[in-house]
């Protein structure tokens, strides 16, 4: 039992008084008619988030937006689109697949074209 109390005491969260406070600069949420919506948030620590969207044809939500966070003092922006094709982020920090190392043979391209018909 003593070990249990020691583990709980050790695992307790840090005091909130020790945390840096963050001031909200903007925090707007709009729920419009016909399923439209938008959000706009910014804090004085450089974190920001904006999005807008509307209800999709199949009942899902179509959204586009951006967010920025800070890493080692540098702002890291990311833009995105989310729709029936999934979440599509865009940022200079995201990995990019390497170029295909060999030329694609003509017969392979013909097979792909045939399969698309």
TrEMBL record:
GO terms for molecular function: structural constituent of cuticle. This is Uncharacterized protein. It comes from the Eukaryota. Keywords: Cuticle. InterPro entries: Insect_cuticle (IPR000618).
